[in-house]
Amino acid sequence: MALTRSMLKGMNLTEEQVGAIIDAHKETVDALKEQRDNYKANAEKLADVQKELDDIKNGEDWEAKYKAKEKEFAEYKAAVAGKETLAAKQAAFRKLLTAENIPDKFHDRIVKMTDFDTVEMDGDAIKDEAKQREGIKSEWGEYVATTNNQGDRPENPPRGNTVMTKQEILAIKDTAERQNAIAANLNLFKR
């Protein structure tokens, strides 16, 4: 049985009371219709969701996917740790090269040719440092920088107090001679 205005008037209600009851009833019915529509839409989606769930249960092996991703992540972490360890070994080895008086310009070449798989670390330093130093001396000794602090030979005396201008130095054609003149007169080329 539906709620109508004529039925409410038959109960001897005023027009205001009838209008208020009808408005309240309309709000209730509209809310119920909206709920019904939502339930209907969800029921239509349920078939798709159930199909997805069945596909996951039957076809896809989520546990294998998880283990594969876990293994991939572990390999990535190991690769990053390996790179960090290699960088630490190389930095410590460069310190040894410097301690053995090998110029910095040769460090990159030597580091590229060194096998760091055999080098073991003890914190920030290389284990068995003495052995590594001996290896550096035997393999790379020819690169050791030596300083020769003897004066000019008598058969090649210095030029004396000849003062050259910047233009005269730059006019020298021989590159080596020009560089020597620049080195002897650095005060002319400072800014």
Relevant terms:
two-stranded antiparallel ribbon, 3 domains, 64% helix, mainly alpha, 191 residues
Describe the structure.
By secondary structure, the protein is mainly alpha-helical. It has 3 domains: 5-56; 67-143; 164-191, no CATH class. Helices cover 64% and strands 2% of the residues. The protein is built from 7 helices and 2 strands. It has helices at 5-10, 15-58, 62-99, 107-113, 129-140, 166-170, 175-184; strands at 121-122, 125-126. A two-stranded antiparallel sheet has the order 1-2. It is elongated, with a radius of gyration of 45 Å. The N and C termini lie far apart (105 Å). The mean pLDDT is 83.
Question: What is the helix/strand order?
Answer: HHHHEEHHH
Strand order of the largest sheet: 1-2
| Rough outline | elongated
The count of DSSP E runs of length 2 or more, i.e. the number of strands, is: 2
Secondary-structure-based class equals: mainly alpha
Radius of gyration: 45 Å
Number of domains: 3
Show unreliable segments: none
Fraction of residues in H or I helices: 55-70%
Strand content: under 5%
Number of helices: 7
Give a short account of the largest sheet. Answer: 2 strands, antiparallel
Measure the end-to-end span. 105 Å
Whole-number mean pLDDT: 83
